[in-house]
Amino acid sequence: MGPPGVGKGTQAARLKSLLGVPHVSTGDILRASMKEKSALGNEVRGFVESGRLVPDGLMGDLIAERLQRDDATAGFILDGFPRTLEQVATLDRVLGRLGRPLDKVLMLTAPESEIVRRLAGRRTCPSCGAVYHLDSKPPAAAGICDACGAALIQRPDDTEAVIRERLRVYHAQTVPVAEAYRTKGILAEVDGTGDLDAVARRLASGLGRAA
Q1: Which residues, at least 6 apart from 94, have a Cβ–Cβ distance to it below 8 Å?
Q2: Is the pTM of this model over 0.85?
């Protein structure tokens, strides 16, 4: 867990390889539902593009379905859920039914100024899904995807106004989640700044593993 743009998805993908369990990203689940343009996807879009949290009931149903798939039987890395105390309770109920309690909660941290810089500079390819950054990973030709040649876009939730709203929501609703897991004795805070390898080593250390 951690604020938007702190690198949860990037590092979860690395942990997936280290631990041999699936990376379950609520962001990916939500974007897939929006891409389908179903009634549910359109409902999700309204929340995501305005920086608001998707309702707990809706997220709980999506997560429960995903964690019951065969590839998550041996474990999983959950990215983006829970984000509220109500979702903590929802996840506890889901995992209780599956008989699999959480082993560890890793919280990545970074200054707000760094979060805004990372997200506002992000550009994505709507065709192949490649991700770039204006500062740290620019495309060879400005505004054009290296992989497929499509025009890059800035996601609606990556504009500065929406980023700051997302951060406001995070501090108001998600930080208490960290305190709940701290009370349970399973929270490890990890510095999310610096190069990717350094952050990965800190995360692995938080799990008692070597990266």
Answers
A1: 60, 63, 64, 67
A2: no
